[in-house]
Design brief:
With about 450 residues, the protein is an alpha/beta fold. It contains twelve helices and 16 strands. The strands form four sheets. The chain has a six-stranded antiparallel beta sheet. It has a five-stranded parallel beta sheet with strand order 6-2-1-7-16, covered by helices on one side. A three-stranded antiparallel beta sheet has the order 3-5-4. Helix 1 packs parallel to helix 10. The relative contact order is 0.16. The mean pLDDT is about 95. The structure holds flavin-adenine dinucleotide. The site of flavin-adenine dinucleotide (FAD) has 33 residues, from helix 1, strand 2 and helix 10.
């Protein structure tokens, strides 16, 4: 049987290799370290953790990343097995001894009879006789290969920096203060004329907000990242530093908007949120890409009227990254539509985080193995954490409500990616729930549904 070739032995590539070999299909795993390094990796180990040693919450009952852990364990994940075996105390989080973790993954892959590890950089799109390839070269894909991928996918196909605006769960926005309206009620392509959620600020609120942005704690770029600012992608706090009125004439301009709760008073400034996913459960804060630290973001953005109780599915950031415009370029099985022998996995697909990258590697591996064995394998249902993530990457993201900068940005797993529940959650005695109790019950119901649906999918997959 011809092997599946995997390029990149990080979190995604290592997990993909394990899944494919476990299905009995041979794998050649190409990892460039130590022949060529990256700016962040420090060792020659496979699945090296480049920064924190945390896999985040391990709570499968009420946390989406905990649900993803559970699903990966159920699918025989090597990354989760190595993490569990190298756990260090971290409260409710799963944190690992990074060297022990990477060594365990490296050992397991080296010992598998179906896996050959080759230490070499793949600088170009592989030759056509590699008929099944997974590219999992991560956020720091080597320059030559990144340029080759960019040539293949077109000018807007591959991004080298992300510019992440915060994303808010729709049901945590206070609509007694905010309202739906597009500027000048314009429908635009794919819109209705009432596509944005608008949050109004008066003059005092605006001035306090701008002062807080300027004073807030920020994250610095690492030296090797450079400074990617270009017009149209300035961090919100950099715009605020340019003058107190800059934001009012930029992303916070109030023109063309009438506050339905107070129609005779013009808002001094408006924060707009735009639908982010096809389900309509998530909204992104338009133009709010930022280098503010996460704690400062949550504190400052919750001073915006309507967002006092906002729950953030993702906070903002700007980083060196390498990722595809996956919703446009990949099919539902993570294959490049233009050349389906090439499959992508890990952070390069537009997911974010160690666990998510490994999870996308896991599913890419299973899909590639099934294809090689001539078996059909449906993608997991979007009600599972792994299916929700895959669905977002390959199609669930809303790209065109109006013209503007590219909107698909890296995403971590969160309950906003799951289809809403068919029925409202209730207390055991049938009473309506409210506030934090309701939020917790909803998460538990989403998690229970995910567990059921993953079992069903695994049983059908055989
Ligand atoms: C600086 C930095 C800090 C981060 N911190 C965190 C964090 O704290 N927590 C978190 O959850 N996520 C973090 N991330 C995000 C991300 O989840 C991790 O980068 C994760 O490792 C991505 O997994 P991956 O498998 O897609 O890529 P990687 O784990 O980076 O694996 C890609 C592999 O491909 C190899 N490679 C690249 N090009 C080639 C080539 N041409 N030929 C052969 N091999 C190649 C690389 O050497 C590397 O081993 C961070 C990212 C960066 C860049």
């Amino acid at each position: 049987m011809k092997p599946v070739h995997i390029i990149g032995g990080g979190l995604a590539g290592s997990e993909a290799a394990w899944q494919i070999a476990s299905a009995g299909v041979p794998v050649v795993l190409h990892e460039m370290r130590p022949v060529r390094g990256t700016d962040a990796h420090r060792t020659d180990g496979l699945a090296e953790l480049v920064c924190s040693n945390s896999f985040r919450s391990d709570d499968a009952a009420t946390n989406a990343v905990g649900v993803l852990h559970r699903e990966m364990r159920a699918m025989g994940s090597l990354v989760m097995r190595a993490a569990d075996a190298n756990q260090v105390p971290a409260g409710g989080a799963l944190a690992v001894d990074r060297d022990g973790f990477s060594a365990a993954v490296t050992r397991a892959l080296a010992a598998h009879e179906k896996i050959q590890v080759v230490r070499a950089e793949i600088p170009d799109i592989p030759p056509s006789d590699w008929d099944s390839v997974i590219i999992s070269t991560g956020p720091l894909t080597s320059n030559q290969l990144a340029n080759a991928i960019a040539n293949l996918t077109g000018e807007t196909g591959l991004a080298f920096f992300d510019a992440i605006a915060p994303i808010v769960h729709r049901d945590s926005i206070d609509m007694s203060k905010a309202w739906f309206q597009s500027r000048y009620d314009k429908a635009g392509p794919g819109g209705t004329g009432a596509d944005y959620i608008n949050c109004p600020l008066d003059r005092d609120q605006y001035q306090a907000f701008v002062a807080a942005l300027v004073a807030g704690d920020k994250t610095e770029f690492k030296e090797w990242e450079g400074t990617p600012y270009f017009d149209g992608c300035l961090p919100i706090e950099v715009m605020a530093e340019r003058g107190p009125e800059t934001l009012r004439h930029g992303p916070m301009k109030p023109m063309g908007l009438t506050n339905v709760h107070n129609p005779t008073v013009k808002a001094y400034a408006v924060v707009q949120l735009r639908q982010d996913n096809a389900l309509g459960t998530l909204y992104n804060m338009v133009g709010f890409q930022t280098k503010l630290k996460h704690g400062a973001q949550a504190e400052i953005f919750r001073t915006i009227p309507g967002l006092e109780n906002a729950e953030f599915a993702r906070l903002g950031g700007i980083h060196r990254n390498t990722y595809l415009n996956s919703p446009a370029l990949l099919d539902a099985r993570l294959r490049l539509k233009a050349d389906p022998r090439l499959r992508f996995a890990g952070q390069i697909t537009g997911c974010e985080g160690y666990v998510e990258s490994a999870a996308v590697g896991l599913i890419a591996g299973r899909l590639a193995a099934a294809e090689r064995l001539g078996r059909s394998l449906d993608a997991p249902p979007p009600t599972t954490a792994i299916g929700a993530l895959l669905n977002h990457i390959t199609g669930g993201h809303v790209t065109t409500i109006d013209a503007g900068p590219r909107s698909f940005q890296p995403m971590n797993v969160n309950f906003g990616l799951f289809p809403p529940l068919a029925e409202a959650v209730k207390a055991p005695d049938g009473k309506r729930l409210r506030g934090p109790e309701k939020a917790r019950a909803k998460k538990m119901a989403l998690s229970a549904r995910a567990a059921r649906d993953l079992d069903g999918w695994l049983a059908a997959a055989g």
